[in-house]
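To: structure desk
From: M.T.
Subject: fold request, one chain
Message: Could you run this one when you get a chance? Sequence is below, nothing fancy, just the single chain.
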Amino acid sequence: MKASRLLSKDQQQEVVDAIVRAESKTSAEIVVCVAARSGRYDRGEDLIGVAVGCIAVAVGWLLFQGAHDESWGLTLDLGLLPILALFVGGFLVGATAATYLPVLGLFFTSRREMAQVVRDRAQIAFQRFGVRGTRAATGVLIYISLLERTVAVVGDAAVEEAVGTATWDELRDQVIAGIVSHRPAEGLTRAIDRAGDVLAEFMPGSHDDVDELANHLRFID
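Reply: Done. Structure tokens follow.
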């Protein structure tokens, strides 16, 4: 799924309104980014290719074995080159399928590896969209990766010092619950409202606050 298709225009506006509400209470800056995927997972694609190659060889063995006169058993009618061709052909078919259907590669990728890839990509988005580097280091990024079905919450230095990981875990779980229940906008708005309440305790807003980062959603298709 393209990241930009996760939310309708009306739902995007609901999320933007939630960001505005949250930022009215705190000096922190909240940014939401939705990515179609965070990693390529070449190893998973290769393993899919190997699996399909092995299946092709097994099918060839079943189809082309035969019993000959005066033989005690079955002999394989395929030579070495046809066997290699079956394996290579199967590998290419499997690897290509996994490239165009990336979810296949996830079957051979651990949750730990995917979580690390998402965290790394979230850090890149944190830099790319200027969340790091606000004047008081109060930026917060909510990063959603659709392929991996994983969410990462990243805060700048001042935020990380004030807010514990338990809060980020709570926000992450709220967003994931919304996506799983096919109500992504609801999950996001709940998480953003909660973030606003928590951040207001540690870094309340003031009359001279400047909105340093635009409130629109960022999409990486």
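Reply (cont.): The two ends are 8 Å apart (CA to CA). Let me know if you need anything else for the meeting.
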